[in-house]
Specification:
The chain is α+β, with helices and mostly antiparallel strands. Helices cover 50% and strands 26% of the residues.
Length: 171
């Protein structure tokens, strides 16, 4: 099938940072975790300010503060770890060179060609959702695989035409 759009880019450190930030920190579970963190933190402040803190309450307050710090920084740590791991792994797979991605987008699928030669096909019927970031559209499949389309890297078609195509596909 002939491609409607072509998109080509190099996976730089900025690419990994933006994609992993979106994928790791915008998950519904992380948002719920931060809401719980906020509520717990407010209850700790109210406990300290409004109520007389007894010795037992003092220990539980300290434990709550410690748990809040862990809850706050764990997702950030996982994001940094995953982003760096993916970047280093892909450099190692390509003898120290960044991965080059070429996407051929047809009416029914996205054909993904990477250098080194690793080809994949992602059909639109298997795409669960699309996330729009500053520089990319990130397509997430039902199997939780993802591919990014760089907004400013179209060699065939334009960003505006691509956005119209996504609206037509209801993605």
């Amino acid at each position: 099938m002939e491609s409607i759009f072509e998109n080509q880019y190099i996976c730089t450190k900025q690419y990994y940072k933006e994609c992993y930030k979106t994928l790791c920190l915008r998950k519904p579970s992380i948002i719920i975790l931060y809401l719980l963190f906020g509520l717990n933190f407010i209850s700790i402040i109210l406990d300290i300010v409004l109520f007389k803190v007894t010795q037992l309450n003092n220990y539980t307050t300290r434990l709550n503060v410690f748990l809040d710090i862990v809850i706050l920084f764990y997702p950030i740590y996982m994001y940094i770890k995953n982003e760096n791991l993916a970047y280093r792994r892909d450099l190692e797979r390509n003898q120290g060179n960044p991965i080059q991605i070429k996407l051929l987008i047809s009416e029914n699928s996205i054909n993904i060609y990477t250098i080194p030669n690793k080809n994949t096909n992602l059909e639109f019927v298997n795409i669960e959702r699309v996330i729009k970031t500053k520089n990319y559209y990130i397509f997430i499949s039902k199997a939780k695989l993802w591919v990014a389309v760089k907004k400013e890297a179209f060699s065939k078609g334009t960003l505006k035409e691509f956005e119209e195509f996504l609206k037509k596909k209801k993605l």
